[in-house]
Amino acid sequence: MMQRHATTEAATTPILDIEGSRATIRLNRPRHLNRLQPEDLDALLKLFERIEADPAIRVLVLTGTGRAFSAGYDLGSIAGRAGAEQEQTAGSAFEVVADLALACDFRIGIDTSEMFMPAARLGLHYYKSGIARYVSRLGADNAKKLFLTAEKIDAPEMLRIGYLTAMVPPEALDGEVDRLATLLAGNAPIAMRGMKQTINEIARGQLDEAAADRRALDSMRSAEIKEGIRAFTEKRPPKF
């Protein structure tokens, strides 16, 4: 889940904070609009691996310091990473962290947000998995508009095409993030993880029907559904 945040801390690589079942990663280069440097990619990879290995974490909030979420990857650093080994490292990092907003399940932005995809202006052919993510999230027509025109779009247009899943005034941002994070953390984690996988596979046109059927069948025999039904009957929040 992505949001934008404001603070005055000195610039560093991304910062991780864990509170209960919620982890928060904050990009922290506000003077450069949280532009990603090579060391940021390396740090993000390690943080994502740490979070993935912790079963107690159910929600990850990704945010940025200052007035921008992220200005993207530093193109000068791409040119500086010459050599096959460095290209491979950068490529694997991009697969995990690039398109940070679209890699999130939910994207909450303030009503003055803006974004654009500058690849066509820079003479850059974007990497294929990144284009695939734009197409699967936003549709081919919207992906073409962003990639081929390189025009800036505002928050209402970001919401209309699905780049944002929610748009709020600045003063409501933290409250909306807290509300959604709390809601997600309280739902059944195994069922949510399985449904998320099925949804993503369908969006990519790569549904493993047998695996999806197994997940659905397993859920009917799980402790989660027993607790969910019991909580519903007793008119109380479930405890997963």
How does this structure look, described?
The chain is mainly alpha-helical and 240 residues long. Helix content is 52%, strand content 11%. Strands 1-2-3 form a 3-stranded mixed beta sheet, with helices on both faces. A hairpin with a 2-residue loop joins strand 1 and strand 2. It starts with 14 loop residues before the first strand and ends in a 6-residue tail after the last helix.
Summarize the helices and strands and which ones pair or pack.
Blueprint lengths: L14 E5 L2 E6 L10 H15 L6 E6 L10 H6 L3 H14 L2 H4 L4 E3 L3 E2 L3 H4 L5 H11 L1 H10 L3 E2 H7 L4 E3 L4 H14 L2 H16 L4 H12 L2 H12 L6
Parallel strand pairs: 2-3, 4-7
Antiparallel strand pairs: 1-2, 5-6
Helix pairs in contact: 1-3, 6-7, 10-11
Précis, in short:
By secondary structure, the chain is mainly alpha-helical. The protein has helices at residues 38-52, 75-80, 84-97, 100-103, 119-122, 128-138, 140-149, 155-161, 173-186, 189-204, 209-220, 223-234, and strands spanning 15-19, 22-27, 59-64, 108-110, 114-115, 153-154, 166-168. Helix 10 (189-204) packs antiparallel against helix 11 (209-220).
